[in-house]
Write a structure and sequence with these properties.
This protein has about 300 residues and is of the alpha+beta class. The protein has 9 helices and 6 strands; from the N terminus they run βββαββααβαααααα. Helix content is about 60%, strand content about 15%. Helix 1 runs parallel beside helix 4 (about 125-180) and helix 4 (about 125-180) packs antiparallel against helix 7. It comes from Nitratireductor aquimarinus.
Amino acid sequence: MSRLQSMTGFARASRDHDAGGIAWELKSVNGRSLETRFRLPPGFERIEQGARQRLQKRFSRGNVQASLNFTQNGALRRPVVDEEFLKEVAELAGRLHEQFGAAPATADGLLGLRGVLDYADPVADEEVRASLDETILSTFDEALVSLENARRDEGAALERILLDQVARIETLTDQVENDSSRSPEAIRQRLSEQVARLMDATTGFDEARLHAEAAILAGKADIREEIDRLRAHIASARALIASGGPIGRKLDFLGQEFNRESNTLCSKSNATTVTAIGLELKAVVDQFREQVQNLE
């Protein structure tokens, strides 16, 4: 089982009770924090608090929708007739027939009127209700376990992708560090050619001052610090992934740092080969940041 969790997943759990059939459906998608929405049948609002507490113990991020479906046991549905109300509407129907010639009322028509016929609540008994609520919440626990497993399965796939991307970032960092354009000889040759072009094209420059300025520019173009920081971020990313748990926000911060260093590397580059590597590095970092958004 993966040490990481994705924020996406789906789960179902169902169980039968003497009062009826219970079925939960849970759906989880990405979210900046943990947000939960319950869809419960009328009369079952009482179980929301307990269900919400159970969910919060398992997850820290994601938008979770929890839907409960309850199918009442037909054998327990007992019809209840409001006889006083039935008598009143029957008398009213009779007067309408006599005075205005309205069609005579029928039994099924009268029983179909709202308020005349209802069904007794099979869980009105406190003991039955307590038993039902316990079964509903234990079924919810099963659904939570299934959802957690689904999120971990997705997390395992994300872990492999992220580690591959970190390895690619390390490879590109190695390529930048070992690029021939960064050798002292290449830097010296490039600066010498730039100074020579300036001296040939202009007059009145102090050659010593010009060389000093060139040295300053060479220092500004050095990418040693960016390389060192990239390596530190690579080590941090691997350590976080190995630690597991809800590390999505921390990896997102590291993704921002990766992006900052790759941007700086491209802006400071004075060689086409380094620029090309930097652009590829930016693309991999963007992919890394995109995948991190799916992590808890």
